[in-house]
Amino acid sequence: MKALEQNRGLCLRVIDTLVRSDAFILVLTLGLFGILCVFYPGTGSVRNVTNLLSNAWPLLALVIGQMFVLIVGGIDLSQTAVMAFTSVVGGMIMTTRLDPALFAANSLWGTVLTEQGGPLSGSAWAAPAAIAAMLAGGGVIGLANGMAVTKGKMPPFMVTLIAMFFFGGLAIYATRSENIGNLPAGFVALGTGGACRITLERGTVVLLPYSLFVAAPLAMVAQVFLTRTIWGRWFYAVGINRQASQVSGVPTDKVTIAAYMLSGICAAVGSVLYTARLGNARPTLGEGMLLDIIAAAVIGGISLFGGRGKVSGALFGVLFFVLLSNALNQMNLSYYTVNIVKGAAIAVAAMLDGWRQRKT
Fold first, then answer.
1. Within a 10 A sphere around the Cβ of 337, how many other Cβ atoms?
2. Residue 279 near residue 90 (C-beta atoms within 8 A)
3. What is the 3 state secondary structure string of 123-184?
4. Cβ contact 65:76 at 8 Å
5. Which of 271, 242, 272 lies closest to 259, judged by CA?
6. Which of 43, 149, 321, 330 has its CA 20 to 30 A from that of 259?
């Protein structure tokens, strides 16, 4: 009897340690992957695994941006609107041709936009300039959000909700809800090209997409920033206790503004990758993705209470969520059922986050 109790206590301690560890979500992901391979053998195919990872890299950029804001105790609901707005800005700059029937009513027609495309149409600098403008746009929107939160003393939820509606609406107004196509081939290759191609029965598969070479350095920079710099320590300190951090001399307002700027820039990076992958700039880019971003962040152990979050957790959360979405698609479930399951996953992750917070 005593041995049984000891084994039971040991099992509980092991489970408790596993649930609180950073590798918990990775274990769940591998377990889910194994189960899916049994019931849906196509899950483990080279093509499907490659597709899963291709979906993960742009989402990882967005989740890393959201992570910065969550760590300082805020939230950014405007990321999807930043994606749409910056996608339109970049598309307008580098498009090589526009249909007058679709864009002649645009207020920029005849000045910025013409039938021959944007202002840098055909230039070798079109794609680099467009990407720079997209990143700058994301940073400026993030700066505005951070200033409103710190200087305007407005709730982060309300500030970013307003930004979501404003910039999302502005993207639709600027294009009259029309997609901007005819983007430079070099830019489109960011989302569709890659290295190490293999040929399968149903076509060619890219094992190392260029989006990986964008998301991976971004993740490494974020890791170094959070773990090796004083600013990274300030981020966690502000999220744990803002008042105590301020008394200790931490520039809490600057830290908060920096977090929202980084979130905006990361949203613009996601916009670059998704726009390139789709081959056109869309004023509705990112529509419906906010749930995915928040879900992946929370599932990855990035606390909604602030003060906790890691790049590795963001990566594991993205992998789990992308795999879950892939499984739901293979089950041919309805749109509403998919959202119900995703919502349930967020609820479980949020409850787990609260439990971890109490244990800590």
1. 12
2. no
3. CCCHHHHHHHHHHHHHHHHHHHHHHHHHCCCCCHHHHHHHHHHHHHHHHHHHHCCCCECCCC
4. yes
5. 242
6. 321
Bridge partner residues of 195 (DSSP): 208
**Local confidence band at 18 (pLDDT 50, 70, 90 cut-offs):** low
pLDDT digits (tens, 9 = 90+) for 60-106: 999 999 999 999 999 999 999 999 999 999 999 999 998 888 888 88
Q: Are 299 and 320 in contact (CB under 8 A)?
A: yes
Q: Are 270 and 81 spatial neighbours (Cβ–Cβ below 8 Å)? A: no
**Residues 215, 61: contact at Cβ < 8 Å?**
yes
Percent of the chain with pLDDT over 70: 91
Give the start-to-end residue ranges of the domains of the chain.
24-359
Q: Residue 332 pLDDT > 70, yes or no? A: yes
H-state helical runs in 24-74: 24-39, 46-71
Q: What is the pLDDT of residue 20?
A: 64
Residue 194 carries which side chain, given as an amino acid letter? G
Cβ-contact 93, 129 below 8 angstroms: yes
Q: Which tokens go with 103?
A: 């864009």
Report domain 24-359's class: mainly alpha
294 in Cβ contact with 43 (< 8 Å): no
Lowest-confidence range among 139-143, 319-323, 345-349? 345-349
Q: At 144, phi and psi to the nearest 5?
A: -60, -40
